[in-house]
Amino acid sequence: MQFIPVKTKAILPPKDDIYPVLDKYLPSLKEGDVVLISSKILGIHQGHCVKIKEDTLKEKDALVMKEADYYIKRKYVPHEFSLTIKDNTIVASAGIDRSNGNGYYVMWPKNTNKLLKEICDYLKKKRKIKKLALIAVDSHMLPLRSGTMGVSIGFYGLEPTKDYRGSKDIFGRKLKCSKANIVDTLAVMGNFLMGEADETTPLLIIRNANFINFTNRQTAKKLLVPIKEDIFYPLLGKYHKNKK
Length: 244
Description:
By secondary structure, the protein is of the alpha+beta class. The protein has one domain (2-241): CATH 3.30.1330.100. It has six helices and 13 strands. It has helices at residues 18-25, 39-45, 57-67, 112-127, 182-194, 233-236, and strands at residues 2-6, 33-38, 49-51, 70-71, 83-86, 89-92, 104-106, 132-141, 148-156, 161-163, 179-181, 203-207, 240-241. The strands form four sheets. Strands 1-12-2-8-9 form a five-stranded mixed β-sheet. Strands 6-5-4-13 form a four-stranded antiparallel β-sheet, with helices on one face. Strand 8 and strand 9 form a beta hairpin.
């Protein structure tokens, strides 16, 4: 398996079309490639950016409240980042970022899976290939761990999990619950190689990942767990649903 980082020009807020960037910088694609795309350039592509006026916590919190699906009240979060759930992902401050924003807050794209399908269809036609998948990635933090790691905020073109249920372990015991999360596993390594600072590497190609099952259907729902059915619900239940 290969990880091929792709450098590009700086993608500039508040709006910058991604398609000319893909045409110019994305190298030749092969059947079975997976393209990872930074959530930030997808948000900029849609113009989903807001000019920073005061650069205060109050200003950012007001924006977070518009974007988050669930949130922990600010009085319980005594540091800069707020605790939120956005698009079935636990993330700081609803994914809103001002790093490399050039004076703007950059938000996650809207309807990410739909946008990725549009981009995937474009690349398939342009590059004359049939098997291709896209994953939008950002960074988030794990509880009780220092540092950030990648996470998928949307994807298209592949089955997101490998199901081991019904298989046997090395002692012949039949597995009842085990699934492997393929999408986020790829997002972790891809996000690390794409970088967090001035790398200008918002794209990455994963090649020869022979364990992937490609599809032309939307499969995002297969990855998601309803919040009340999640093993972490005793913690997630402390979040408040945002009344937008």
